């Protein structure tokens, strides 16, 4: 009688002291600045339990079959330094720690593309806005991503690229000056040296962009030079330091980042409380009283004998 013995080799199993199984479950468990932590499980014995003999491991990794690097480690893990924008094939095999001549076979390839090690998106994006005159300071905060796009633990030191865009749908070249003026412009003088100016918003169809603020123009009658005050995004202004009894003209315009738009209809007022447009509506008694307290009104207008003061 002739007996024939056959040994069936199964992946990952070790049958004899001089035959080592294959490391299994190769994976990248963490990354730090393109240094990856590679882990695997010990080879199994024929009984299906981990091989508890003293093992070391050879780890090789290469990109495109060139620049093969090799490590020998004594644990089921290894740190590998990779290069950005490269693809790697990584192999591991077990060896007897006491006798490196006794070796197992290589594991299957673990393919790692460093593009897949990119950090995940920042989370919990928050924004605060602080205005200072014509400018705004926007503070943006977010939570640091803790994993890669593939869900691998990531402890890398990160830098961030912050992109932002104007919410206006118009392109830069299509912005225009405001084609309409602020609405409801009013002027009131309740002190001997000031004028309070107020106005409403520019109609939406005439803004032609984002309104950044307003300019109040004013000048004394007889002067050709306009003074101006930039008041950003408010809707009233008190002009102070004016000369009592003098006639002043006031107009208001809005502006975008392209420039100043259409001015409002000019308003006129005499500093001290009398609106110039209402002078002709005064009766004689009120007019004489006004003339007595305002420095000579003859400098502001001419008497018309046809109008009964």
UniProtKB/TrEMBL annotation:
The keyword Isomerase does not apply. This is Fibronectin type-III domain-containing protein. Gene3D superfamilies: Immunoglobulins. The keyword Repeat applies. GO terms for cellular component: external side of plasma membrane; receptor complex. Keywords: Disulfide bond, Glycoprotein, Receptor, Repeat, Signal. SMART domains: FN3. Residues 22-117, 181-274 form the Fibronectin type-III domain. GO terms for molecular function: cytokine binding; cytokine receptor activity. Residues 1-16 form the signal peptide.
